[in-house]
Amino acid sequence: MLKTIILSLTLFLALPALAQDQQTLNQQAAQRFADADKELNRVYRELKSHLSKPEQEQLVEAQRHWIKFRDANAKAKAVTNEGGSIYPMIYAGTQRRITESRIGELKEWLEEYK
Looking at the domain assignment, is residue 94 inside a domain? Predict the structure, then answer.
């Protein structure tokens, strides 16, 4: 019984430290997307360095289309929250997940050259 009371009291006192405001959550989501985007650009540049000129041109075109897709998909996912404080978190979170998937695709392609 005493253990339960102590555990409950500890959790109660810790809750304010666990709580975050939406602005902080939005900033964290944006940072996680920025980190994923940085990794994407690193892998993209490395892959591109292994390709012939025509292959590079095709990759650049494909990447431009992919970026439009990523952003449009993120907007579609977040649109129900448009105007709300959670919108940036949903938008950035979707961008991050799609970007991480693209990183995987490019890494698989890159493995062909190693």
Answer: yes
Q: Provide the token pair at 15.
A: 């809750």
The gap between the terminal CA atoms of the chain, to the nearest Å, is 61
pLDDT, one tens digit per residue, over 1-43 is 666 556 555 555 554 555 589 999 999 999 999 999 999 999 9
State the amino acid at position 65 in one-letter form. Answer: H
Exposure string over 58-75, b if 16+ CB within 10 A, otherwise e: ebeeebeebbeebeeebe
| 15 located within any domain | no
Domain holding 72: CATH number?
1.20.1270.180
Q: Which two tokens stand for residue 49?
A: 């360095």
**DSSP 3-state helix, strand, coil percentages of the chain (rounded to 5)?**
90, 0, 10
pTM of the shown model: 0.82
Residue 24 buriedness (CB in 10 A; 0-12 / 13-18 / 19+): exposed
Residue 92's domain comprises 22-111
| Domain assignment of residue 74, yes or no | yes
* Number of domains present in the structure of the chain: 1
